[in-house]
From TrEMBL:
<protein>
    <submittedName>
        <fullName>Branched-chain amino acid transport system permease protein</fullName>
    </submittedName>
</protein>
<feature type="transmembrane region" description="Helical">
    <location>
        <begin position="60"/>
        <end position="82"/>
    </location>
</feature>
<keyword id="KW-1133">Transmembrane helix</keyword>
<feature type="transmembrane region" description="Helical">
    <location>
        <begin position="242"/>
        <end position="260"/>
    </location>
</feature>
<feature type="transmembrane region" description="Helical">
    <location>
        <begin position="266"/>
        <end position="284"/>
    </location>
</feature>
<keyword id="KW-0813">Transport</keyword>
<dbReference type="Pfam" id="PF02653">
    <property type="entry name" value="BPD_transp_2"/>
</dbReference>
<keyword id="KW-1003">Cell membrane</keyword>
<feature type="transmembrane region" description="Helical">
    <location>
        <begin position="143"/>
        <end position="160"/>
    </location>
</feature>
<dbReference type="GO" id="GO:0005886">
    <property type="term" value="C:plasma membrane"/>
</dbReference>
<feature type="transmembrane region" description="Helical">
    <location>
        <begin position="190"/>
        <end position="211"/>
    </location>
</feature>
<dbReference type="GO" id="GO:0006865">
    <property type="term" value="P:amino acid transport"/>
</dbReference>
<feature type="transmembrane region" description="Helical">
    <location>
        <begin position="217"/>
        <end position="235"/>
    </location>
</feature>
<keyword id="KW-0472">Membrane</keyword>
<feature type="transmembrane region" description="Helical">
    <location>
        <begin position="34"/>
        <end position="54"/>
    </location>
</feature>
<comment type="similarity">
    <text>Belongs to the binding-protein-dependent transport system permease family. LivHM subfamily.</text>
</comment>
<keyword id="KW-0812">Transmembrane</keyword>
Length: 292
């Protein structure tokens, strides 16, 4: 029973990390209808900048602030410089651009920061809580990660459902021509969407970094699992991203604990295929309306 509880708590923490990345992907999709495969590279760059601040004597919170601000600028620049020229082209062109951006960011990071993995300091104690004499695999830092992800999900859900900004962002993504006729500045909304998604990704990078080493390719696997979580939950749903991340984290934790880490990737593929067979639009996704 103790082993099952430890695996569950470990899966909750890992799932929260996947959910954070999934939230960034969902935000991009909801505001631009683009799957940003460069998200891992973008959060890697902002995490490196935060690591530089922390390594120079700055506090954890100052490093987090630097990551957020650099993510805001990076997201806006990427949309203006790289994504705007392919805005009216077929969607595949934008996907190719994001793949190219990922390779570019990893190459530049390798030249600037080097390829040696670096450790990142956690924000809180990483010693697990003790309950009834048992040391849990769940620490104050893990609790911080879970609470931040839940908070980000709540903020995103509120923005998209309850604010005029969210309404304008959705209209710019789904019906840009109609939105322009209604006075919505579509270009500005796309820039805001990319900037906000980069901010969420930057926060995710700082949350992930203490559990792994920071290097140009350190977040590739996290991006893959985050994308899987987003698809499982539904690319249109912030709560779905969180549920998908936690579900995937729990399943992979059980698989790793009972069957071994070698089959974790295969288990993620099985979960993804099963969910898509049962719910093609994800657990919280909305099916497309059929027109006759």
């Amino acid at each position: 029973m103790g082993r099952f509880l430890d695996l569950t708590l470990a899966g909750l923490t890992t799932g929260a990390v996947y959910a954070a990345v999934a939230l960034a992907l969902v935000l991009i999709w909801r505001s631009t209808r683009i799957v940003n495969f460069a998200q891992g590279g973008m959060l890697m760059v902002t995490t490196f900048l935060a690591h530089t601040v922390a390594g120079s004597g700055g506090s954890y919170w100052l490093a987090l602030l630097v990551a957020v601000l650099s993510g805001l600028v990076l997201g806006a620049v990427v949309e203006r410089v790289l994504m705007r020229p392919v805005e009216r082209r077929p969607p595949l062109d934008a996907v190719v651009v994001t793949f190219g951006l990922l390779v570019l960011l990893q190459g530049v990071a390798g030249m600037v920061f080097g390829g040696t993995p670096r450790s990142y300091p956690p924000g809180f104690d990483i010693t697990g809580f003790r309950v009834a004499g048992h040391q849990l695999l769940f620490s104050p830092n893990d609790l911080w990660v879970v609470l931040v992800v839940l908070g980000v999900m709540a903020v995103l859900a509120f923005v998209f459902r309850r604010t005029s900004l969210g309404l304008r962002m959705r209209s710019a993504a789904f019906a840009p021509e109609v939105a322009r006729l209604l006075g919505v500045r579509v270009g500005r909304m796309l820039t805001v969407g990319w900037a906000l998604a980069a901010v969420v990704g930057a926060v995710a990078g700082v949350l992930i970094a203490p559990a792994t080493f920071v290097s140009p390719t350190a977040f590739d696997a996290t991006l893959v699992f985050g994308f899987t979580a987003a698809v499982i939950g539904g690319l249109d749903s912030p709560p779905g991203a969180v549920v998908g991340g936690v579900l995937l984290g729990a399943v992979l934790s059980y698989v790793s604990g009972y069957l071994g880490p070698d089959v974790v990737t295969f288990a993620a593929l099985v979960v993804l295929i099963f969910v898509l067979m049962v719910r093609p639009n994800g657990l919280f996704g909305r099916g497309a309306e059929r027109r006759v």
